[in-house]
Amino acid sequence: MERYVWELTRELQQLGHHVTVVCERCHVEKPAGIDVHELGEIAPRPRWLALLRFGRRVERFLLAHPHDGSVIHSHERLRIHHITTFHGPPFATVFERPWWRWLSLRVAMQLFLERRELSQPQFVVPNSQFIKTLIAHYYPTLAQKMTEPIVPGVLAGAVRASRAVPPRGGVVGFVGKEWQRKGLPWVVKLVAALRVQRPELQLCVVGPEPAEVAHLFADWQGGYTLAGWSDQSPYPGFDVLLHPAKAEPYGMVISEAMAARVPVVISDVCGAAVHVTSESGAVLPLSAPLDAWVDAVEQQLSRCDPVPQFERSWGWVAKEYEQLYSKIFADRQMC
Predict the structure, then answer these.
(1) Cβ-Cβ contacts under 8 Å for 182 (sequence gap 6 or more)
(2) Rounded to an integer, what distance in angstroms lies between the CA atom of residue 159 and that of residue 306?
(3) Residue 84 host element (H or E)
(4) How far apart, in whole angstroms, are the C-alpha atoms of residue 232 and residue 248?
(5) Span 183-227, pLDDT tens digits
(6) Are residues 226 and 205 in contact, defined by beta-carbon separation less than 8 angstroms?
(7) Which of 107, 153, 149 is nearest to 131 (CA)?
(8) Whether pLDDT at 24 is above 90
């Protein structure tokens, strides 16, 4: 979400819009030409209370700073906004769990904040078709507010050189700090199975702290790298990106890998799956057996044809939002 907001606001400013950002804290140098107001950090737990407190701070800020004529574009659980971008799976998926999991203050407050965020604005923008489908399922009465998805852009960067992968080796990449949700245990099991036929195959894990996931490799004798967190993932060094996430609203690592001409093998519950063609990789159901995943990765490691480069600039994303802002302004003039 932070990358989405960062890139979008900068592109909107480049298009000539006056952009004001209201946040807890800006962790980098403030971008030129954009007003940034820091409201102060809030204790992150409990999460529902942090969201409620941040929303109240934003409301006080807006009362103290006249904003007539502005469009308030939120990416959080606010009450006062004209448009919101919804980035994650709805919390309402809790209803798929046993009923006794619903009976807590945390669940009640999260559901309240989620419905409030979705009910108040003129437009709700899902960041993928996957998220749009979920919102429509759990909040059918709000379906008329939803726009077509505006998926994240991807920055141009270094690309993988066209090369043949050695029959005994290759490099499988995994990128994701939330390693459990993104399927790292399955990746470890899958690559271990592949190493039977490719004994020199390497697994590069980017994102989680090495000490946090080292136990997954207790039975390994080398063949892996735990790179920790990095601002720039080494996609050009991968021969395939493996992303069997259990639930992934979009999955920017997927589009970033494809932009670097790296083939991908991912689960079908990733929002970015709509961009994965037979030329760029494979999409498998989470229920597929291990052998099916092994075969899919092996096909990508054995391929000879180049991977088409995925392209979607953040400038395109900003222009899609411009169209929604224009509709908001037009409706105001009609009132």
Answers:
(1) 174, 176, 207, 243, 244, 245, 246, 248
(2) 11
(3) strand 83-86
(4) 20
(5) 999 999 999 999 999 999 999 999 999 999 999 999 999 999 999
(6) yes
(7) 149
(8) yes
- DSSP character for 207? S
Q: Would you state the structure tokens that stand for residue 330, as one six-digit string?
A: 């037009």
| Tally of residues, the chain | 335
- Residue 285 identity: P
Question: Which phi and psi (to 5°) does residue 114 adopt?
Answer: -65, -50
Q: What's the CA gap between 245 and 178, in Å, rounded?
A: 10
Q: Which amino acid is at 284?
A: L
Q: How far apart are CA 245 and CA 286, in angstroms?
A: 8
- Residue owning tokens 């670097």: 260
Q: How many CA atoms lie within 13 A of 203 on its CB side?
A: 29
123 beta partners: 83
Structural tokens at position 319: 């222009």
Neighbour order of strands in the sheet with 281-284: 224-228, 202-206, 171-175, 240-243, 264-267, 281-284
The H or E element spanning position 209 is none
Tens of pLDDT along 3-13?
999 999 999 99
Which tokens is 318 given?
A: 């900003």
